[in-house]
Amino acid sequence: MKRTTPTAPRPIAIFGDGDLGIWGLLVDDEQPRLALATLDTAPAEVKFVPATVDRDDDEVWSVSAGGHSLRFEKGEATTLTPGDGLGLQPLRVTGTAVLGDKTQEIDVAGVVSQTGLDAAADSLRLFGSWFPAGHQIVLRAARPRGAKGQDRDLIDVIALGENEALVFDPRLSTTYDSDSAPRQAGIELWIGADDEADQYPRRVSGVASGSSIAETSGGAKLSAHALHCLSRGEAGVGVYLLLRAA
After folding, report:
1. DSSP string over 41-53
2. CB-based contact 129:236 (threshold 8 Å)
């Protein structure tokens, strides 16, 4: 069977909050769509709904979808991999969301990846993790076409709440279940002022909550999974997104 090449990279935002117990994602392509659910919502009940995205400017988007009225505001990372050029930016997602039969105010953390799966990549993984104390770690791993394993992955990281500016030697580990869905995931990296200074480790572990969504669109297969995360002894929430060529 001939492999279908994705038509174009597409910006994707993921977000979540452990206190509210919610997670979601926005796919911003020719037909923008939003999914938002609780951490324990069954996969059969997690749905994309068409979205309208109004860009007040490049840094602020207003998103309306299925009764949700949200504001996506981009921020700046305080810590990142040297030479990061892949367009990862922290987000604040605020507004009102419809969960079940209730409408509630939300103010949660997220990230936007300005580039999705392009013709040079076989797959892309985006793992965002957010914690109540305000620290965040997001990793993006793009696997080049033809690569057989993760040793050739192009990895970038952004973080908030760290004491130093640079991330070194980031690694992503994933354990999949029998259906090739991520069951557990982990991030390990080192943070320091430069590659010759003292560096300290940061680790994030995540376990799938059971809530997920999947689709095939635009020449790519997308799946996203909510995670219960742990870092520095603090419980948080995460989203693990996987894009592969169809």
Report:
1. --GGG---EE-EE
2. yes
Locus of tokens 């690694």: 171
Residue 28 near residue 13 (C-beta atoms within 8 A): yes
Distance CA 52, CA 54 (A): 7
Predicted confidence (pLDDT) at residue 2 exceeds the cutoff of 60:
no
Q: Can you tell me the distance from the alpha carbon of 5 to that of 239, in angstroms, rounded to the nearest whole number?
A: 25
Residue 180: pLDDT band with limits 50, 70, 90: confident
Confidence of residue 40 (pLDDT cuts 50, 70, 90): very high
Type of residue at 68: H
- pTM attached to this predicted model: 0.92
State how many domains the chain has.
1
- Is the residue at 5 inside a domain? no
Structural domain includes residue 66? yes
Range name among 49-63, 112-126, 189-203 with the lowest pLDDT average: 112-126
Classify residue 191: in a domain, yes or no. Answer: yes
Q: Which domain holds residue 236?
A: 12-245
Query: Does residue 28 fall inside a structural domain?
Result: yes
